[in-house]
Design brief:
The chain has 9 helices and no strands. By secondary structure, the chain is mostly helical.
């Protein structure tokens, strides 16, 4: 019973069973194709990649040896990098696939009840847009997932490969960069920790239980000096923001329910607009109350026709 609860709770994070909900055939077929594509891409990039990367490394070794007279031995450790990248990519993208199914279920159930919390309501799109954009759902979802998997796999392998060569052949440069970056990162982290502690124990009343300021004068004096500090440290925050956006784009490339452009510009994201219009079309043509009403009407029509035939006889 204990292991059953652990497995059920962990599985419910990526998919939750609902008694009165079933996915449409289009959704099930689309995600089945995506899983097959991910499996084929993993086998292709891993096993064919060993042969192709070995040939490319031999060409690069020949060019570097004749142009710069550097004898760099690649070795065979890149095979371990390939298997490592395959495992990480499969775990991340399979998790994203099942999380996407879970989000579709949540959005459809909420929309059946008339709650549009995470997606724009239907009146934001014209009838022409609903039809034309929802047609791209299956193709976009499969294409975004496949190309996101390939790009993430290639970038991860390149980072692992260059990082290993960097440490092996030029560890001094690595130490210099660490000596340059680590103090800035530590100052950045310590500043955020200090801000959090001051906010809880100095600025706010009742140790952060209420949003009321304890002393406005101290707060604005600290805000004045923090302005100059953030102007110089803002370049690190800018780099971190760019890295976060790039990493999020790679990890969530196969998730059409996430828009990378924010709430005001989300209609410019073709993938997200396709997902929203598909959800609305599923609600219009697959609402369970509508289906049950049509079934009852059809049964009543058959029953009335049968009675008429009996009366005519």
């Amino acid at each position: 019973m204990y292991y059953n609860n652990i497995l059920t709770r962990s599985f419910s994070k990526i998919y939750r069973y609902h008694r009165y909900f079933t996915f449409s055939i289009q959704i099930l077929c689309t995600y089945t194709v995506i899983l097959i594509v991910i499996y084929n891409l993993t086998c292709l990039l891993t096993f064919y990649g060993i042969y192709s990367i070995k040939n490319q490394l031999d060409r690069i070794h020949y060019i570097i040896l004749h142009q710069f007279n550097w004898d760099i031995q690649w070795g065979t450790t890149f095979i371990n990098d390939l298997f490592f990248c395959s495992i990480i990519s499969i775990i991340i993208y399979c998790t994203q696939i099942f999380n996407g199914l879970n989000k579709i279920q949540q959005h459809l159930i909420s929309a059946y009840a008339g709650k549009y919390i995470d997606i724009p309501p239907r009146h934001n799109f014209s009838n022409n847009e609903l039809i034309s954009k929802c047609l791209h759902f299956s193709g976009y979802l499969c294409g975004y997932t496949a190309w996101g998997f390939i790009i993430f796999y290639k970038i991860l392998f390149l980072i692992c490969f260059l990082f290993r060569l960097w440490i092996r052949y030029d560890s001094k440069w690595f130490q210099h960069i660490l000596a340059l970056c680590l103090p800035i990162i530590l100052i950045y982290l310590l500043k955020h920790i200090l801000m959090s502690l001051l906010s809880e124990f100095v600025f706010l009343q009742n140790f952060g239980r209420t949003p009321s300021l304890n002393n406005r004068r101290i707060f604005f004096i600290f805000n004045y000096f923090n302005f100059f500090f953030d102007c110089f440290l803002g370049i690190l925050s800018c780099v971190i923001r760019i890295l976060k956006s790039v990493l999020a784009s790679l990890l969530f490339m196969g998730r059409l329910d996430y828009s990378f452009m924010g709430r005001n510009l989300e209609r410019l994201d073709q993938g997200y607009a396709t997902y929203v219009t598909f959800i609305h079309m599923e609600i219009i043509h697959g609402h369970p109350i509508l289906d049950d009403s049509l079934k009852l009407t059809e049964d009543m029509t058959v029953l009335i026709n049968s009675y008429r035939k009996i009366i005519q006889r």
